[in-house]
Amino acid sequence: MTTITVKDEWKQRAKLDAETYQTWYDRSVSDPDGFWGEHGKRIDWIKPYSTVKNTSYAPGNIDIRWFEDGTLNVCANCIDRHLESRGDQVAILWEGDDPKESKAITFKELHEEVSRMANVLKERGVKKGDRVTLYMPMIPEAAYAMLASARIGAVHSVVFGGFSPDALAGRLEGASSSVLITADEGLRGGKTVPLKKNADKACEIAKKAGQEVTTVLVVKRTGGDVPWSEGRDVWWHEARESVSADCPPEEMKAEDPLFILYTSGSTGKPKGVVHTSGGYLVYASMTHEYVFDYHDGDIYWCTADVGWVTGHSYIVYGPLANGATTLMFEGVPNYPDAGRMWEVVDKHKVNIFYTAPTAIRALMGAGKEKVTRASRETLKILGTVGEPINPEAWNWYYKVVGDERCPIVDTWWQTETGGILITPLPGATDLKPGSATRPFFGVKPQLVDNEGNVQEGATEGNLCITDSWPGQMRTVYQDHERFEQTYFSTYKNKYFTGDGAKRDEDGYWWITGRVDDVINVSGHRMGTAEVESALVAHDKVSEAAVVGYPHDMKGQGIYCYVTLMEGEEGSDELRKELVSHVRNEIGPIASPDKIQFAPSLPKTRSGKIMRRILRKIAEDDFGSLGDTSTLADPGVVDDLIDNRQNKK
Ligand code: 6R9
User: Fold this and answer.
1) CB 648: neighbour CB atoms within 10 A?
2) Antiparallel, parallel or unpaired: β 445-448 and 459-465
3) Where in this protein does the record say N6-acetyllysine is found (predicted)?
4) What is the ipTM of this complex?
5) How far apart are CA 240 and CA 242, in angstroms?
6) 412: CA distance to ligand 1 center in Å?
7) For 567-616, how does the pLDDT look when each residue is reduced to its tens digit (9 = 90+)?
8) Rounded to an integer, what distance in angstroms lies between the CA atom of residue 351 and that of residue 382?
9) CA spacing 20 to 30 A to 340: which of 182, 265, 598, 627?
10) Binding-site residues, please?
11) Of all atoms in ligand 1, which is nearest to the CA of residue 415?
C-alpha cells in the first residue's frame, strides 16, 4: 500500500502540522469544553455563551446542545462582519452554464441583495421560525435565499432542483412550508429545467394534502415562458425594487434551527434533518479553514449543488463565515466538453477544488488531454466527498489533475454530521489513496460488530461515533423519536453512521460504504425503500425489491426486482415505462439501471425479503449465496439466477 508522506511545500503553507494536529486532537477529546469553548469564538456572538457542551446520548434522552446560552445571527456572521475589512472583496464568484457567462458579487453587494430578499420575505409575512422552501438552480440567488432566511430567523429547506414535483410536494408538506423560492427555469449542460412548472405542480399536490403555498418567489433566470398565479407568485426582480436595502439581522439562540434538509434513510420517507445555528456554524467554518487549509485571499470552489448538505456547509456557510471567495457553478462537468472544470480553474485562478469521486471517474474516462490543456497552476488543495474513492480515481486526481503537487483531502461525512468528520489535513496527515485517514477535532470514531461489541486494533466493523461534536444534527424535524430510533437505537449510547469501515494498523480509517439499505448513486444518497415504493405505485407492479450493485461510473447502480400483477407480461417496453415512472415519482437521479421481472422474491417464512441474496445475484456473485435454507421456497432463487440482468 502506497503512502504519500506530507511534502515540504505542503508543510510550509499549512496552518497545522502533524504535531499540532495531535495536540489539538488529544485536547479536543479529553477536554471538549475547553477546546470548543476556545474555538467557538471564531464566530461573532451577540451574547457570548457561558456553557459549551451539554449533550446526552442516553437511551430515551438524546439531547444535543452546544453553546446553549449564546446568541448570534448566522447571516451576519457570513456577511456583515466582513463588510469593514473586505466589503469590496468578491464573496460569490458565479460561473454560468454557458462559459461566456460569469459574475462576481462582493460582500457589500451580497449584503444588499440578501437584505432585500429578507425584506421581501418579511413583507410576505415570513417570521422567525417559519419554514421557507427553496427549489433553485445554482445561481447566486440560491445563496441569497438561504442567507435571507437565516437573517430573519426563518428555517430554510432546500430541495434539490432535480427532484420531481411529487418529491418537492412531500417536502413542502413535511416542513409545513407556505413559502417557496424558485426560478423560471434552470440551465444545465445547455438544457433548460422547468423549475417553475414543477413548482406549480408541487404546490397543487401539496394543497390537496392540506399544505397551501401562499407565496412563490420567482427568480428570472432564462426568461422562458412560465405559468403565473396572480397574488401568489412574485417576481424577485420586481419585488426587490420596492423594499429597503436594510434589514437588521434577528438575534437567534445558538440552538434555534437554521435549516432542515431532507435525506434518505433505510426505511420510510426521507427524514428532515435539523441543524441549528451556533454549533453548526462553528463546525462548518472551522472544518472549512483547516481541512482545506484555507488562507485569506484563496479562491475556493466546491462543485456540489446547494440542494445537498455539501452545498450548505462548503459552498455557503463555511466559506462565507471565513470571508472566503466561494465559486458557484451552474453547469455540469462535461459541458461544453469534459475539460470544463479545468478551464474554470484557470479562468478564475482557483486554489482549492472540492468535488465528488463520480465526477472524477467520469472525467478520467474522457482522457488526460482535456486536463492538460489547462495549466491548473493555481491549484493548491484537492478534495473529494460523497462516496468511497477507488485508488485508481484517487491516483488520477493526484497525478493528472494535481501534477503530484496538491494534497488530496478525502473527506468523510454525512448530511447528519453537518461537517467533515474524518479527513486528512494538508500539511499534517500522510495520505493513503482511498483512506479518509483520521478524525477531525472532537470526533471519536469507533468500530462495533453486529452485536455492538467494540472492536479494537486493525479490523473492520460498523462505524459509530461515541460522543457529540458541534455540527451534529439535533433532531428529525418534528419526530425526535425517529431521530433516536434511526441513529441511537442500533447501538446504545453511540451515534451509528450507517456506514461500514476498516481501521488499519496505523489507525487510518477506510470507509467501505453503507451497511444499511441506503445506496449511493453518483454520490447521491437514496433509500432502496423509496425506489421500491415508487415502483409499487405503478398499477402493473405488485411487489418490488431494490438493491445496489457495483457500477464503474456511478459507484453503485440501481437494480430492481419487480413482480408484476397477475396477467401482466414483462417486456422491454414495460421496463422503459417503469424507468420513466420512477423518474417522475422521485427524479432522474433515481432512474433504475436494471429491472429484472421476477415471478416471486426470496422470502423467509415470516415474509421478510432476503436482500442479501438479491444483492449477490445483482452482483453476479451467486456462487456464495450463503444459507438459503430459511427461505419459504428455495426454488425461487434458481429462477432469479437464470434471469439475472448483470451476467458477466
Ligand atoms: C457529505 C455527504 C453520506 C454518505 C455516507 C457515506 C458516503 C460521504 C464519503 C463517503 C466514503 C467519503 N460518503 N463521503 N464514503 N468516503 N469521503 O455526502 O452526505 O449525502 O448525507 O451522504 O455518503 O456512505 O454515509 P450525504
Assistant:
1) 6
2) antiparallel
3) 608
4) 1.00
5) 6
6) 6
7) 999 999 999 999 999 999 999 999 999 999 999 999 887 777 888 899 99
8) 9
9) 182
10) 188-191, 310, 334, 386-388, 410-415, 499, 514, 522, 525, 536, 538, 541, 583
11) 21
Q: Radius of gyration (Cα) for the chain, nearest Å? A: 24
- Per residue in 30-62, pLDDT (tens digit) is 999 999 999 999 999 999 999 999 999 999 999
User: Ligand 1: which of 264, 315, 499 to mutate, most ligand atoms within 8 Å of CB?
Assistant: 499
Alpha carbon dihedral 414, 489, 254, 441, in 10-degree steps, equals: -50
Please state, in angstroms and rounded to a whole number, the distance separating the CA atoms of residues 507 and 457.
Answer: 8
- Here the cell at position 257 is 434551527
520: CA distance to ligand 1 center in Å?
A: 8
In the structure, which protein residues have their CB atom closer than 6 angstroms to any atom of ligand 1? 263, 308-310, 385-388, 410-415, 436, 497-499, 511, 513-514, 520, 525
Q: Give the span between the Cα atoms of 145 and 157, in whole angstroms.
A: 10
Query: For residues 476 and 63, is the Cβ–Cβ distance under 8 A?
Result: no
Burial of 568 (0-12, 13-18, 19+ CB in 10 A): middle
Cis, bond preceding 227 (omega within 30 deg of 0): no
| Composition of the chain by helix, strand, coil, percent to 5 | 35, 25, 40
Query: Which pLDDT score is estimated for 1?
Result: 66
